[in-house]
Specification:
Radius of gyration: 27 Å
Strand content: 5-15%
Distance between the termini: 47 Å
Largest sheet: 8 strands, antiparallel
Helix content: 25-40%
Shape: globular
Number of helices: 17
Oligomer: single chain
Number of strands: 19
Strand order of the largest sheet: 11-8-7-12-10-9-6-19
Structural class: alpha+beta
């Protein structure tokens, strides 16, 4: 409850010109009465960024202070009025700080472009998952015009399919077409996940003219940046490696194994990244003062137990070399970096770039404590924000962990998070696999898949492949020896638990809809698989094959020759621009993952 008198000091880096050193002289600002900086603001007080008149203030015109910070003043303090008018950081009066208009915070991520596509010959198959292994659910005939977002050689449809015939495969000719423009048999296909594979493209011959009645639906959003300048990571020598996947798919195991490499340091469960991105993802923007209060409150709660690296009480198969949490930066640093993040957002830096600086600051400090060169950041919910991470770190690499959806369902259903029923679990798993696979189609050079089953059966081969893909030395033999010789060797017995716990009817039900398509994409056998498919899978597993290779997802062209789609789908471009609704970045709080 007391007060202290501080004097202003400077921390200066300069060359030593002589043995006597360098003399640094003023002028210095006047000394002020105040409190220590960490006690200046109340994290629950959303007015901490406003001056005494309730006006938002930016950078100081006479110092390097980024933005006004309101001090806490006790009524009994004789100097209260004077201190209340001075910035708690730089000490200057509030009118020395730039006056800012009310600020709306937006994430500032480049939105995907919605384009027009037309089937110009034959018919195009419509899938419920972006993979040639998925079963086609419908066909669209020549002349059909579709809106969609391109992900590599796949297009995710948006809205209705028009100007062409649409029919469900193996359905009566007179079957009624639903409101979505696509007729389907199974009710479980209620989702936005309709996909068409592109054929040969001749965009120059099929551009939609501006007077086309469909031209207005094509929307292109631009980056919410400053003069188009892309901010680069601060404090990191190289972009992080992000590990993601559906919960209970082995993400922690993968990050832990990668973290045993001499150059890679794992960081677990940084869900504050998804939380802050979600706060700023509102289409209309969020008032800065409200945003700042919510951010400070979330970070204050999240950092209370930092640093975290204890092993905790876990089952044998969930004990890891780095423990269930491996976060080496301190709470003080995290809160200071959060305040700088808010300052940068307030003075106009795009939120996504300010978030990058926040992460880079914490990641760099973690590396310093661990004595390594590269960060491996694991958070399962990253599957839904890979576009945001790619905007933050253009050179990132993503490792997508995949596990048999039936095993995932049996593992996640007893948990306090996630779905409550088996159909919900199937959809929950398929949504996460689809989100990551779609991003991988668009960014094959930065995307890698690893199957949990392959990793525990053939750890050395899988790790060797991953290390090579990530551009680091192959230390797979050392890592496997270290893991196998510890308290928690690779547990092959956990493979196939879903087959043991689910009935035949439940296994067949899992095959229906998008979950079945996702299972086929990931090379998992299903009850209706042909003997040839089963033999091929057994051969692949016995040879230590992998579900994916770096440089892309599964090779769809060679994966399955069952569906030979001769249709040509051409891109139709449109110059019309309009606002399109931003997808909320979904926050998923996960427990510790394998």
């Amino acid at each position: 409850g007391g007060t202290w008198r501080f004097r202003v000091v400077a921390c200066i880096s300069c060359p030593i010109m002589s043995p006597r050193g360098v003399e640094v002289v003023g002028p210095w600002s006047e000394s002020l009465w105040g409190r220590p900086l960490q006690c200046v603001t109340d994290v629950t007080d959303k007015r901490s960024c406003l001056d005494p008149k309730g006006i938002l203030r930016g950078g100081c015109r006479t110092s390097s202070c980024l933005a006004w910070l309101r001090p806490l003043v006790e009524p009994s303090d004789g100097h209260g009025t004077d201190i209340a008018h001075r910035c708690a950081r730089c000490g200057h009066l509030f009118d020395a700080h730039t006056r800012l208009p009310p600020l709306k915070v937006r994430l500032g991520v480049v939105e995907p472009t919605v384009e027009l596509f037309r089937v110009v010959s034959g018919s195009a198959a419509v899938f419920d998952f972006p993979s040639d292994r998925a079963r086609p659910r419908a066909e669209v005939g020549a002349g059909a015009v579709m809106q969609g977002v391109r992900h590599g050689h796949w297009v995710q449809l948006v809205g209705d399919v028009t100007l062409g015939q649409v029919r469900t495969l193996n359905s009566p000719p007179d079957e009624e077409i639903g409101d979505s423009g696509i007729c389907v048999h199974e009710q479980s296909l209620e989702s936005s996940g309709w996909w068409v594979k592109l054929g040969d493209l001749h965009a120059a011959a099929s551009i939609v003219q501006g007077d086309s009645p469909l031209a207005s639906v094509s929307v292109r959003l631009v980056r919410n940046g400053v003069n188009g300048v892309v901010h680069r990571p601060d404090g990191l020598h190289a972009p992080p490696i992000f590990v993601c996947g559906a919960g209970r798919s082995g993400t922690t195991l993968v990050a832990d194994l990668l973290g045993m490499h001499s150059e890679l340091s794992p960081i677990y469960e940084t869900d504050f990244v998804t939380a802050l991105a979600k706060l700023a993802a509102c289409e209309e923007g969020i008032d800065f003062v409200e945003f700042a209060g919510d951010v400070m409150q979330h970070m204050d709660d999240w950092t209370k137990q930092l640093p975290r690296s204890s092993s905790g009480s876990k089952a044998t198969h969930e004990r890891y070399h780095h423990g269930p949490h491996h976060l080496l930066f301190s709470r003080d640093l995290a809160m200071q970096a959060t305040q700088r993040f808010l300052d940068e957002v307030r003075v106009g830096r795009p939120t996504v770039h300010a978030l990058e600086r926040l992460c880079s600051c914490l990641f760099a400090d973690h590396l310093c404590h661990d004595g390594k060169r590269l960060v491996v950041n694991k958070t399962p919910a990253y599957v839904f924000m890979l576009p945001v991470l790619a905007e933050m770190y253009p050179g990132l690499k993503v490792v997508h962990c995949i596990r048999d959806g039936r095993d995932v369902a049996c593992s996640v259903l007893p948990r306090p998070f996630g779905p409550d029923t088996l159909p919900e679990a199937a959809q929950w798993w398929a949504d996460r696999v689809e989100a990551a696979v779609a991003w991988g189609h668009a960014n094959p050079e930065r995307y890698c898949e690893v199957r949990f089953e392959d990793l525990v059966r053939h750890p050395e081969e899988e790790l060797s492949r991953l290390f090579h893909a990530l551009g680091v030395a192959d230390e797979s033999d050392k890592v496997v020896s270290r893991r196998s010789g510890g308290d928690a060797p690779f547990d092959v017995g956990r493979v196939g638990t879903g087959h043991q716990m689910l009935s035949e009817a439940q296994l067949l039900a899992f095959e229906e809809g998008r979950a079945g398509s996702a299972m086929r994409h990931c090379c998992y056998t299903l009850p209706s698989s042909s003997p040839g498919d089963l033999a091929a899978e057994e051969s692949r597993v016995s040879e230590g094959g992998s579900a994916g290779v770096y440089g892309g997802a599964l090779d769809d062209a060679a994966a399955c020759a069952e569906y030979d789609d001769d249709a040509e789908v051409e891109v139709e471009e449109d110059e019309a621009e309009d606002d399109v609704e931003e997808d909320d970045v979904e926050e998923h709080e996960e427990e510790e993952e394998e």
